[in-house]
């Protein structure tokens, strides 16, 4: 029941998935990893996701930058790792208006009460 892979929307209703994928849902919080080392970026991402879970945010934008791509290629692995995947419902590459291939949308699971 965790984020399986980029673009996997199983378990999400079609309207939510479509708005999320198209970047038409309001973004609750943004993290810019531009220019960070791989280690610092990973630490920042984990802290950011944990903080947003506590704040009950749903839609996040994480900017990796286009550059050489180490952060961009590492992000999907980080998001599917055990310490983050249980909080994440889905993630996908951002649309051009939000940074395109240099950014990702992340959809967090809702807190069940």
A few lines on this structure:
Helix content is 35%, strand content 19%.
Keywords:
globular, 113 residues, 4 helices, 19% strand, alpha+beta
Please report which band the strand proportion falls in: under 5%, 5-15%, 15-25%, 25-35%, 35-45% or over 45%: 15-25%
Q: Give a short account of the largest sheet.
A: 4 strands, mixed
Number of strand elements: 4
User: What integer value in Å does the Rg equal?
Assistant: 13 Å
Q: Which structural class is indicated by helix and strand composition?
A: alpha+beta
Within the largest sheet, what's the order of strands? Answer: 1-2-4-3
Percent range of helical residues: 25-40%
Uncertain segments are: none
Distance between the termini: 18 Å
Q: Helical element count? A: 4
- If you average the pLDDT, what whole number results? 89
Order of H and E elements: HEHEHHEE
Characterise the protein shown here:
With 113 residues, the protein is α+β, with helices and mostly antiparallel strands. It is 35% helix and 19% strand. A four-stranded mixed β-sheet has the order 1-2-4-3, covered by helices on one side. α2 crosses α3. The longest helix is centred in the middle third of the chain and has 17 residues. The mean pLDDT is 89.
